[in-house]
Amino acid sequence: MNRSSLLKIVLILLSCAGLSAGPAAAQSPQTHQHSFGGAEQWAQIFDDPKRDAWQKPHEVIQALALKPDAVIADIGSGTGYFSARFANMVPKGRVYGVDTEPDMVKYLAERAKREGLKNITAVTGAPGDARLPEKADLIIMVDVFHHIADRARYLKKLQGSLKPGGRLAIIDFRMDSPDGPPKSARITPDRVKTELKGAGYALIQEHAFLPNQYFLIFQPAKL
Ligand SMILES: C[S@@+](CC[C@H](N)C(=O)[O-])C[C@H]1O[C@@H](n2cnc3c(N)ncnc32)[C@H](O)[C@@H]1O
Questions:
Q1: How far apart (Å, rounded) are the C-alpha atoms in residues 101 and 77?
Q2: How far, in Å, CA of 144 to CA of 127, rounded?
Q3: What SS3 class is residue 94?
Q4: pLDDT tens digit sequence for 60-91
């Protein structure tokens, strides 16, 4: 077994063991919480080039049909797998990479500097508030939804961070995916749709080209 496979197994075991970030006051059902400290190590998994085969980042970004000056908020940006790609694809736009884990925020800020991505801002979010500095055309959460505690409140609050016509995209692991968090932590797309509806959003698009994940796009529902 090579070093990277061993590291992957260790991180998955730690993740399953639920390295505690402490339960939030109001938890949504199926909230999966553990530490994302040690960004350098997580980067070996999140930014593993093999991920591209199933994550299809280029296709995801193409499907989002972004304006060249779009403001994008990548919530739970981690090591910047998507933030860096968004920043390259919309050089006239701005990307806010939001994470609650200080080490991830530091890592993304350093990555943006290293890669000359001046349009990325790394933001320290709170578990219940993305703390976005401006309203966004697109808010995206990739493999993050199941980590958010009290999602009903979080999602309602997030509506205030969308520009008129702004969209919220959610990508997360399907139950049958060979990759991803433990099955007990996964949230079905039907459940996501129900929770989003309850928080005042309407589903406007659903893409089926990702082999392991669902890809749903919402907008605030018209009253
Ligand atoms: C599985 S990683 C996904 C990283 C990245 N989106 C990707 O696709 O590579 C989940 C990330 O969400 C972050 N996170 C967890 N809860 C969060 C919250 N309430 N707000 C913002 N980020 C959160 C974690 O710290 C972690 O970096």
A1: 10
A2: 11
A3: strand
A4: 999 999 999 999 999 999 999 999 999 999 99
Domains assigned to the chain: 3-220 (3.40.50.150)
pLDDT at 16 (0 to 100): 31
Query: Which runs of E-coded beta strand occur in 3-101?
Result: 71-75, 94-99
Identify the residue whose C-alpha is closest to ligand 1 atom 13: 76
Average pLDDT, the chain: 88
At residue 145, φ and ψ (nearest 5 deg) are -50, -45
| pLDDT tens profile 168-195 | 999 999 999 999 999 999 999 999 999 9
Cβ density class 68-86: b for 16+ within 10 Å, e for less:
eebbbbbbbbbbbbbbbbb
Give the pTM. 0.89
With contact defined as beta carbons under 8 Å apart, do 216 and 60 qualify? Answer: no
- Check pocket membership of 104 for ligand 1, CB cut-off 6 A: yes
Which residue's structure tokens are 């990739």?
Answer: 142
Taking the CA atoms of residue 133, residue 134, residue 139 and residue 141 in that order, the dihedral angle to the nearest 10 degrees is 0
Ligand 1 center from residue 144 Cα (angstroms): 5
- Atom 1 (ligand 1) nearest CA: 143
Residues in the chain: 223
Question: Does residue 108 line the site of ligand 1, with CB under 6 A?
Answer: no
Contacts of 34 (CB under 8 A, 6+ apart): 14, 15, 17, 18, 19, 20, 21
Q: CA 115 to CA 78: how far, in whole Å? A: 16
